[in-house]
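Sequence in, structure out.
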Amino acid sequence: MPLGDLKKLFPLKAGAKSTTQFVELSPNKQPKGTKTLELAVKGKETFSLGGCKYNVLAVKETFKNQAGETLDTFTALYAPDLGASLARRYDEGTSSESVVGYETIKPLAQ
């Protein structure tokens, strides 16, 4: 659950940065303090998915615990036209870099 106004985060634009504190909720468990999400929109890219190409924003996401220690970091490839992240890039810029994403997307049945 965010502890601030998320409206200031959107719409995402290249070069934008923000920091938001939140409490992670789970059923039958008390929250264990706050966490922080740091977002940095690094730029625009093209991402291929199936036979299509999408314009995406590369958004670096860093999650930190209450002590400021990094819990997770990755780059989300967010497609504004679809309103969804299509993939995550891990270990960016290293020999271990990997991309985990959808293989196909389809419209929901109406």
